[in-house]
Amino acid sequence: MKRILVVDDEPHLRLLYEIELAHAGYSILTAANARECLEYIRTTPIDLVILDLRMPGMDGVEVLQTIIAHHRGLPVIIHTAFSSYRENYLTWGAVAYVVKSPDLEQLLATVDRVLHPRSSHSQTARIPGPSVPRPQERSEHATPTP
């Protein structure tokens, strides 16, 4: 089971995310601040961090930079109410940026995409056009065209 660390200073949001992500089949840890987040990452195997940016003390951008510097390869989804941070190049080290919404569908879809990437074959769009049978599917009585 994939383990997700949710970092947000608002207790009701941590609880909501914990419930919804656990319902989706993930093991959830929560942290109320940067110190708790970094301690979990240092001591516990984590598969993904969902990180708020505006927190008292060390903000999420600083936490993200620490994760990038010391835990390279640990994916981080920035989940914040402020879309303006998307333009901050310091946030570009995250694998995704999701603006908070009452509907958690986008967050859940992003978590699924990050933790369960599909093979490149299943993500390739099929180009519409006439169907051409593969050689093994052609009738043995078909006349070859010149």
Plain-language structure description:
This protein has a five-stranded parallel beta sheet with strand order 2-1-3-4-5, with helices on both faces. By secondary structure, it is an alpha/beta fold. The chain is built from five helices and five strands. The radius of gyration is 22 Å and the shape is globular.
In helices, the fraction of residues equals: 25-40%
Q: How much strand content do the residues show?
A: 15-25%
Question: What is the helix tally?
Answer: 5
Order of helices and strands: EHEHEHEEHH
**Rg calculated over all Cα atoms:** 22 Å
**Uncertain spans, ≥5 residues at pLDDT below 50?**
119-146
Q: For the terminal residues, how far apart are their CA atoms?
A: 57 Å
Q: How would you sum up the global shape? A: globular
Largest sheet: 5 strands, parallel
Q: In what order do the strands lie side by side in the largest sheet? A: 2-1-3-4-5
Return the structural class: alpha/beta
The averaged pLDDT comes out at 81
Count of distinct strands: 5
